[in-house]
Each structure stands twice: as C-alpha cells, then as structure tokens.
Design brief:
Layout (H helix, E strand, L loop, with lengths): L5 H19 L2 H24 L1 H5 L4 H4 L6 H21 L3 H19 L5 H20 L6 H5 L1
Length: 150
C-alpha cells in the first residue's frame, strides 16, 4: 500500500477545483471572445472614418482594381460594416450572423495580405479569423440578447 502525502492530496484537490471552476463557467469563454472581437471591430471601424487615408494605403493595387467605387467610399462602407459587426457582438445580438460577417471580412484581409511581406499582420488576422469561426459555431448565450431570447 502506497501512502500519499498531504501535499499530493492538496495538488490533486486544487487542480480539480480549478478544472471544475472553468468547466462550470465555460460559457464565459465565448463572452470574452465576443467582447474582444467586438472591441477590435469597433476600433477599426471607427478608425476608418477618422483616418481613412491610412486605411486606403493597405489596399493592394490588384484588389483596388476589383472595387467598383472609390477607395474612400469603400473604406467608409467597410468602416460602417465593421462598426455594425462590433456593436452586434458587443450586445450579443445575432451573434452568429455577426461572426459570419467578421469571418468574411477577416478572410478578405488575410487574402489581401498574401504575398505582401506583411506576415505579422496576416498571422494576427488568421488568429482573429479563427476566433470568428469559433464564435460562429458556438454562438453566445452568456450575457447576450441572443441568450435572453432563447
């Protein structure tokens, strides 16, 4: 028979308590992801109205040729869509729709950075794309309008 030390019991109990805590509160994971994405989209959406010229510089020439309106108009439209996505995510209304829009926007951003030498930007946006896809699958019940309506 092997005796366990009191320290070993404490370690096991502590780990189980932490694991149990996170398991009981797992819905907060989507809440934090939702809030993080909301703040990113609100920030960049608002910034497109304030510093539109800076954002135009990020559009590659090959992509600009496909845009049927002026780049100023495109950036204002993009900024409005991003603010809408951010607002929807912030309150948790139509979360999956907002996550789908976020995914499409980020997919466009990732595709536009391929081959531009902006690997850091592309990798960051791939992470945000992954978060958007995750939220698309998970939805949001915690602290959301969607959760109150269900």
């Amino acid at each position: 028979m092997r005796l366990r030390s009191p320290k070993h019991d404490w370690d096991v109990n502590c780990r189980m308590t932490i694991i149990d805590f996170f398991e009981r509160n797992k819905d907060y994971g989507t809440l934090f992801m939702r809030f993080g994405l909301a703040l990113i989209f609100l920030w960049f959406g608002i910034d497109k109205f304030i510093h539109v010229q800076n954002w135009i510089g990020w559009v590659p020439e090959w992509m600009a040729s496909f845009i049927p309106v002026s780049l100023f108009t495109f950036m204002y439209f993009q900024g409005a869509i991003e603010m809408l996505v951010g607002a929807l995510l912030l309150v948790g209304y139509k979360t999956r729709f907002a996550a789908l829009l976020a995914m499409l926007i980020l997919l466009g951003v990732v595709l536009s950075t391929i081959g531009t030498g902006q690997a850091e930007v592309m990798l960051r946006d791939i992470g945000l794309l992954g978060a958007s896809i995750s939220l698309l699958f998970a939805g949001s019940k915690c602290c959301s309008v969607d959760g109150r309506r269900a």
